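Run folding on both entries below.
>entry_1
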Amino acid sequence: TDQGLSDILEMCGEALTYLDISETNISGAGLSALRGKFTNLEKLELSWCKNLTDQGLSDILKMCGEALTYLDISYTNISGAGLSALRGKFMNLEKLELSECVNLTDQGLSDILEMCGNQLNHLIISTIYISTNISSVFVESLRTSRPDLQIEFW
């Protein structure tokens, strides 16, 4: 549960560098109280968290600091809405996985990318099993504007 996760995270210190809460029922609700607590977190895995909301994701990301280099939110129902408020927060993010996010839109992806800096060098947006709202036109424009970014889109 979200409360259970909050209780566990309260016990963790700032030294936490890796957090994998994939395949849990968390929504992210109520985690805003932990804002800025995990400044050394480098790797965050949230894949298959089907109850994760955009606001919950925002609250979870607010727990993290600039050390984050890897983020996996694949197979979630996030749309990316509202994440532009975190613009420039993750300047060291290198790899971002967004595969099979059925509600993700071009605008949502754009908002998510605004969180990232130029260190982002690998973006995975596969849509093999589930159709998303990401257009190939948007991906091609992204490839043109960011030729250094390896984009896996199929």
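>entry_2
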Amino acid sequence: GDNNPEDNPNKDDNEEEEDILHNGYETSPYLASDLATGYVGKYIIEKGAAISNSWVVGYIVGYVNGTKLTEKSAVFAAGNKETNILIADTPLETDYTNCAPVQLSSGTSYKAAREALNLKIHPENIGRKVKLLGIAEKYMGCAGIKNTREYKFIE
């Protein structure tokens, strides 16, 4: 539209961007693979984009022991870490390149999600499917979710 105030000011009329904004809703969440290996992840990394209010769905498969997601830092088990989890499209994923890191912040708005999702307090969360709300942006050197503030276990 021509300077329609309801238009997203950060969006130019290009199709790729349109498509990205059509997903990530609670009813049509991004998949972990959309971030890990798909178009959304590419967009985030190449454009430095941050897509607020993004819902993503995946299985909790582990966590990152470090500040960057690598083969060495990816732990596919419960562990002594409250600050992040890894999600993937399948519950038995063990290839870190198919995973998206999810930040569990300690701030007031994020505390409930952190306490419910982290694998230190809840090792039984391994293999559970969850829908998460946060900002899809660069995290741990790849596309992930930051400021996770809502969650819904599925099944």
